[in-house]
Amino acid sequence: MPGFRPGGGTVPAGEASTIVTPVATVTVTGRPALVAPYLIFAALWVAAALVPTFAGGLLFNWTADLIAIVALLGTARFFLALAGLDVGTSFGGIGSSREMMIASLAEPAMLMMVFTLSLLAGATQLSAVAHFMLTAEVGLRVSLGLAPPNT
Q1: Where do the structural domains in the chain lie, given as residue ranges?
Q2: pTM of the entire structure?
Q3: pLDDT band at 3 (very low <50, low <70, confident <90, very high)
């Protein structure tokens, strides 16, 4: 199966493609390293587009589930590590293993935060959680704890 050549055209199966950047020259041998930047950008763009920033009750608020957003971020991280391993250099392997080690520490903490907010709000939809945090009496808030006292 042919792959995509950075300057246009296709790469026959098994042939290496060379990407020249101002910083380095990278020889890409597989399709994951060529497709991964597009998949990473798409996953991060969809995750960012699902976050209601300035308005509530958006058209796709039913898809803005906190667990789906965490899954999209994890998918982008997976494709980043896969592309690093596909290059075949020692630096790619070290970077991929470091990325997965940090993911094993950061993603459970993020999921615990998501589950805590979901338990408080009673839903995992981001618009419902944001509405709950803006309207309900949540209790102690970090932003209020960091505010300077009135003298």
Answers
A1: 30-143
A2: 0.67
A3: very low
Task: Report how far residue 87's alpha carbon sits from residue 13's, in angstroms, rounded to the nearest whole number.
Answer: 16
Cα-flanking dihedrals φ and ψ of residue 2, to 5°? -80, 155
Secondary structure of the chain: what % helix, strand, coil (to 5)? 60, 10, 30
Inter-CA distances, 38 with 34, 79, 99, 105, 151, Å: 8, 10, 18, 26, 53
Structure tokens of 112? 């615990």
Question: Measured between alpha carbons, how far is 75 from 39 in angstroms, rounded to an integer?
Answer: 9
Output the six-digit token pair for 87: 């290059």
Q: What is the largest CA-CA distance in the chain?
A: 73
Q: Do residues 45 and 69 lie in contact, with contact meaning Cβ atoms separated by under 8 Å?
A: no
Tell me whether strands 3-4 and 10-11 are parallel, antiparallel or unpaired.
antiparallel
Q: Which amino acid is at 91?
A: F
pLDDT tens-place string over residues 38-85: 999 999 999 888 877 666 666 766 777 888 888 999 999 999 999 888
**Burial (0-12, 13-18, 19+ Cβ within 10 Å), 104:** exposed
